[in-house]
Amino acid sequence: MQRSMLKSKIHRVTTTHSELNYEGSCAIDEDLLEAANILEFEEIEIWNVTNGARLATYAIKAARGSGIISVNGSAARQAQVGDLLIIATFARYEEAELKQHSPSLVFVNEANRIVSVKSATPTQLA
User: So where's the catalytic machinery, residue-wise (predicted)?
Assistant: First the structure.
């Protein structure tokens, strides 16, 4: 049996751009993608802390060190500049893999600069 588990999370980033007339996706500072182990074009979940909206899209790279979080295309209707977001990815794991499973948790400051990166343990996820 496989279980769908949290793979990574970027916690409480601030939306810097909301581009309705763009073909879609979410542009994320490459430093944040790397820290969270998120690949370009990987599916992401976005949870808007400010307004409660939830959506799925895919990640694209924004310039390294820029702090950019740009919600694009139709998703732009769900996030405005200044909104706080949680960006998460999930993956399927076999039962045997769960003993070593440890999601990457990336925490940022108000400028979307990395403050800390942690590996979660099951008790931290409860």
Answer: 25, 58
Q: Is 121 annotated as a binding residue?
A: no
22 a catalytic residue: no
Task: Read off the pLDDT of each residue in 28-34 and give the average, rounded to a whole number.
Answer: 98
Q: Which residue has the tokens 């790397």?
A: 34
Number of domains in the chain: 1
Domain harbouring 68, CATH code: 2.40.40.20
Distance, C-alpha 51 to centroid of its chain: 17
pLDDT digits (tens, 9 = 90+) for 44-73: 999 999 999 999 999 999 999 999 999 999
93 is an active site residue: no
What separation, in Å, do the N-terminal and C-terminal C-alpha atoms of the chain show?
Answer: 21
- Quote the pTM value: 0.93
Pair of tokens at residue 74: 């139709």
Domain that holds residue 47: 2-125
Is 75 annotated for ligand binding? yes
Catalytic residue (one of 4, 8, 18, 25): 25
The span from the CA of 121 to the CA of 86, in Å, is 19
Structure token digits, residue 20: 């309705």
